[in-house]
Structures are given as structure tokens and as C-alpha cells.
Design a protein that fits this description.
The protein is mainly α and about 60 residues long. The chain contains 3 helices and no strands. The termini are close together.
């Protein structure tokens, strides 16, 4: 089963969380570049990673 098939089988809530987490991780990384590693940027990255765990778990570990 390919990754695309696994993503298509995700429940809608998990899929939205997974996509939103990637967006938040991107925001956090962009903010890190701008702010030079100071402040809330690390929290954005950590929130994004935490949000991506359910989707990543289903995509990578489901057989």
C-alpha cells in the first residue's frame, strides 16, 4: 500500500490535523529564520509536530 493510499484512507479529522500541523511547522520554521531563534517560534514547531503525530502514525505504521 502506497503512502498516497494511506493518506486517502485517513479519517477527515486526522487529515485536517495532519495538514494543519505541516502548515504550523512551516510557519514556525519561517519565524525561526526571521527572528533568529528567539521567542515563540520553537513553540510553533513543537505544536506542529504534536499535531502531526496521529496522522503520521496512521500513514507510516499502518500496513
Amino acid at each position: 500500500m502506497s503512502i498516497v493510499d494511506k493518506v486517502k484512507e485517513l479519517p477527515k479529522v486526522v487529515l485536517v490535523l495532519f495538514i494543519a500541523s505541516k502548515f504550523i511547522i512551516g510557519l514556525g520554521l519561517g519565524a525561526l529564520l526571521v527572528a533568529s531563534l528567539q521567542g515563540i517560534e520553537w513553540w510553533l514547531i513543537l505544536i506542529g509536530i504534536a499535531m502531526s503525530i496521529p496522522g503520521a502514525y496512521i500513514i507510516w505504521l499502518k500496513k
